[in-house]
């Protein structure tokens, strides 16, 4: 765990795609303690995103963004320079 200035930590050494419940509990503890966690270079499938989200509680689908056609519980957020 690497502190990021005054707020947040960077967590390394855990792949979210195959994290154990113990790993997820540690991640949740870090989130509650530091407010922000950064876990770079993660590649999750849509199912992996949903599994991670459901670990934290019921999924609240944001209807403001476009839903992913193959996964109705995922809203896609994209940005562009314009």
Task: Tell me what you see in this structure.
The strands form 2 sheets. The protein has a 3-stranded mixed beta sheet with strand order 1-2-3. It has a two-stranded antiparallel ribbon with strand order 4-5. The protein has 2 domains: 1-43, no CATH class; 44-82, no CATH class. With 82 residues, the protein is of the alpha+beta class. It starts with a strand and ends in a 6-residue tail after the last strand. It contains 2 helices and 5 strands. The model has no long low-confidence stretch (mean pLDDT 87). The longest helix has 14 residues, at 21-34. The protein has helices at residues 21-34, 46-56; strands at residues 2-3, 9-10, 37-38, 66-68, 71-76.
Helix content: 25-40%
Biggest sheet details: 3 strands, mixed
Number of strands: 5
Provide mean pLDDT, rounded: 87
Q: Spatial order of the strands in the main sheet? A: 1-2-3
The general outline is globular
Percent of sequence in beta strands: 15-25%
The succession of helices and strands, N to C, reads EEHEHEE
Helix-strand category: alpha+beta
Oligomeric state of the chains in view: single chain
Our Rg estimate from Cα atoms comes to 14 Å
State the distance separating the first and last CA atoms.
35 Å
């Amino acid at each position: 765990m690497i502190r990021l200035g005054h707020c947040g930590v960077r967590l390394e050494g855990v792949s979210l795609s195959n994290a154990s419940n113990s790993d997820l509990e540690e991640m949740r503890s870090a989130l509650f303690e530091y407010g922000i966690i950064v876990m770079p270079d993660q590649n999750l499938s849509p199912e992996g995103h949903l599994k991670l989200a459901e670990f934290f509680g019921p999924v609240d689908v944001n209807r403001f963004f476009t839903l992913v056609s193959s996964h109705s519980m995922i809203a896609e957020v994209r940005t562009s320079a314009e």
